[in-house]
Amino acid sequence: MAVAWDDVGNASSILQLLGVDAFGLASMITQAALTARRNRDACLQLAEHVRVVEGLLRRLQTLPRLRRHPETRRPLEQLDDALRRAYLLVRSCGQELELRSYLYQLLTGAHTAARLLAAEEEIDRYIRLIPMIGLVATVGVEVTQEVLELDGEDSTLSQDHVLLPGVEEFQIIGEPKPGFTLRVCGFPINGTKLCIFQWVRYLDDGTRQSIEGATMYDYVVTADDVDTLLAVQYTPMDDDGLQGELVTSFANGKSKIACDSDMQSEINACISNKEALYNVFILNADSWELATVMLRRTGYQIKAKMSDELIIEEEYSQMLQTKIPNGRTTQFVLVSSGGVNLAFNTCGITEPNTEDYDVRLRDLIVLTMRAFQKKALRLELDAEEEGES
């Protein structure tokens, strides 16, 4: 199918990519987006969309028979072509200006953004045509009898035997660390059309904690997940409402979630120095006001930055809590020992400023405060035990 953006690149560029499969092209698009100099946000959005279906594209490598059958070969070839054009378009956004002056003028501004969106939409169309379903897109595709036979699956079932909806090769992809997004993918079977998701945490005492609002196929790991076992529970369902078995799948190989080594080093340095100071925004009435959070060995202090007014100061206690909302957000809530709720935001604080850095700062503040709190309570308990002895 010819599209409005297929004049990017030339015939030789397309030919050079003919030997690259769909999964390889998806990886190349991701790498090219990271080096984009123009329309970077649109390129990253396209790359993110391709990553969502990356598990499905990997599956194509293991099903060579699909390309031998006329009903399935054509849409797969068209998908390959769409991915090639998408790669050339994203790559062109990273070309040096002096080498690509004409192309630069052609693909700037809204025109390039529209072409990137067209690329994303075309890839979507072909994903919906191939005989498989991407859970990350919650799109159902009826698999034809011919494809089932090519895959060696027996579709003749006795009338009294009902196969429950299910998912094969279910997996959680993504970096299991604070600030990163996890996504689920797999291959629905037995008429599965949708899945009911619930992300959960398993605490040290064995209790299971459902994460409020975390009911989608993707989940942003936060400081709340550190030192817990993170998992997703899902129930597959068909169009008639028939449900399969509830399945639990753990992230990080069923190991506890941990922050990255750099963040842990920063936390350790603060504990060693016995203090930490952070700039944040605090919600005052209906507006965000710049403030400072001072963490010390025995307690914490929060002051308004401009007026130097003391907002709260207290020692650490068991009642002190920090809460993080679900989703990709830079906000968190501190519940003081006296039950006072204080809302904070790190949006726009970091330099150089990016959303990723702001989210990271939020998690760093929360984890550092919890580390100080844990250490203070441990010292207090040790002192009590020593006094009793």
TrEMBL record:
Residues 26-160 form the MCAfunc domain. It comes from the Eukaryota. Transmembrane segments: none annotated. CDD domains: MLKL_NTD (cd21037). One of its GO terms (biological process) is cell surface receptor signaling pathway. Residues 167-248 form the AIR9-like A9 domain. It holds the Pfam family IG_AIR9. Residues 285-377 form the DUF7046 domain. InterPro entries: Adaptor_Cbl_N_dom_sf, AIR9-like_A9, DUF7046, MCAfunc, MLKL-like_MCAfunc. Signal peptide: none annotated. GO terms for cellular component: plasma membrane. PANTHER family: EXPRESSED PROTEIN. This is Uncharacterized protein. It comes from Miscanthus lutarioriparius.
